[in-house]
Amino acid sequence: EAGLQESVTYTEHDLLEVARHELGHAVAARFYQPDHTSARLSVRMRTDSLGHHRNTARVEMHTHLRSYFAGDLRHGLGAIASERVFYGENSSGVTADLIQTTSTACHMVGIWAMGPDPLDEERSRLAISLGEHLISRAEVTAGMHEEGTVVGTVLSSPRARRVVAQVMGAAYIDVWRLMYVNQRAIDQATERLMAEGELVGEEIDTLLDSIGLRLPTPADPYPQPVPAMPADDFEQAPPRLREESA
């Protein structure tokens, strides 16, 4: 459940930002979660959120294939992709999204043996670079020690962490490109959502049907790589000095 509505008046800037964030989720779900349907799309503050997009499975299932969780990642990362496309940066409102997508990716890699996305080497490197900066460490220390949770255990393995980064980065690339080619359409929907405050069920489907959404083509842009950071002093030290420092 979304929680109780709170009587809060947003500034125009905040309302626009929340609407674009939530539409990022809704648009991503439209293309990458075909087995789900949107139940509520809201920019009304509730107990734990400024707005939300809630979707539900069309058919109840008790086990899921990798593609199901890949869609879940793209739904979760749609909001941060939307924010970055529109603003060139993201807000602190992505906290819960990153916690959830990190957990999903860690389960995919470390528990369910679902492995990386099938990308060529160049795209895979881009995905790893982007995904590494999407990983949330918020749940790592939820146990008695860093490896006391699934997330902590998986991320403590350099090889598994790299696969988690690739899986999250691949999902982010897909939704970033989706948001990029649909900016005008998203803002058409944004105007309606801001005016209504909340849409439910078929209202959401009708709105998304009306704005001309499309998937990106191979010629459409990709997100830029993460800016390079200089190596720290320890990484630059000769192997002998590293051993002495250890």
Structure description:
By secondary structure, the chain is mainly alpha-helical. It has one domain: Methane Monooxygenase Hydroxylase, Chain G, domain 1 (Up-down Bundle). It is built from 10 helices and 3 strands. The protein has a 3-stranded antiparallel beta sheet with strand order 2-1-3. The chain starts with 11 loop residues before the first helix and ends with a helix.
Q: Main sheet? A: 3 strands, antiparallel
CATH superfamily: Peptidase M41
* Shape-level CATH architecture: Up-down Bundle
The end-to-end distance, rounded to whole angstroms, is: 49 Å
User: Would you report the number of β strands?
Assistant: 3
Uncertain segments are none
Q: Could you name the CATH topology?
A: Methane Monooxygenase Hydroxylase, Chain G, domain 1
The geometry reads as globular
Strand order of the largest sheet: 2-1-3
List its salient traits.
246 residues; mainly alpha; Methane Monooxygenase Hydroxylase, Chain G, domain 1; three-stranded antiparallel β-sheet; 10 helices; 3 strands; globular
